[in-house]
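Reviewers of the previous submission asked for a worked example of the structure-prediction workflow described in the proposal, so we include one complete record here. The input consisted solely of the amino acid sequence. No template or homolog information was supplied to the procedure at any stage.
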Amino acid sequence: MIKLLIVDDSVFSQKVTASILRKYVEEPDIQFAADGWEGLKKYKELRPDYVFADLLMPGLDGQSLIRLIQEFDPSANIVVVSADVQNHVREEIEKLHILTFINKPFTDEKARIICNIMKEKDNGKP
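From that input alone, the workflow returned the following structure tokens.
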């Protein structure tokens, strides 16, 4: 079973992302975090296979969360799903060696792209 952690301060976005991922990932174990600090704590506890992180969150923002997760686990698989589409922000985030940066809204088409990346990375597991 593949473990996914969705870190987003919007419960609506959490539900949409999870609902769409369930269409393309067989029996995922999906956990949620409402901000970066909770996301970091859950990452350390759960060691998910993939993290789906928003950038714009109160408290610990997504960019800081990515850095802290990578300090803890340099091999972490992180997908950014964010409404922040400014070029300089995207460039900074991509320098952090994430799997990919997806613009909100999260859609079926975007989920298929991510799931293909996950399958390639995991040799066809999802």
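The chain has a mean pLDDT of 92. We consider this example representative of the routine output the project will generate in years two and three.
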